[in-house]
Amino acid sequence: MRQYSVQSLMDEVGRGISERYPRVMVEAEVAQLTVAASGHAYILLREPGTQRAAATLSAVCWKSTWRGLKSRPKPGDRVVARGKLSCLLYTSPSPRD
Question: Is 49 a residue whose pLDDT tops 90?
């Protein structure tokens, strides 16, 4: 069994995802939506009709795209989102922060 660092594993997973799914469309329900000061919209998508968070997908709608939408979704709306998948490595604050 191969041992990975966190970064190398995330890099490899990300490459595999982007190669297998270069562009996707997903039907989902908007669970949460936040428009940041930057103008980007951060969206949590979930399986339509569910209240639990078992199957969710985090998404970003870039500022230029968000401004160009004729109709902006809100929590509870069903949407068809399209774009590229990626695997991001981020750090969250430690419990002491």
Answer: no
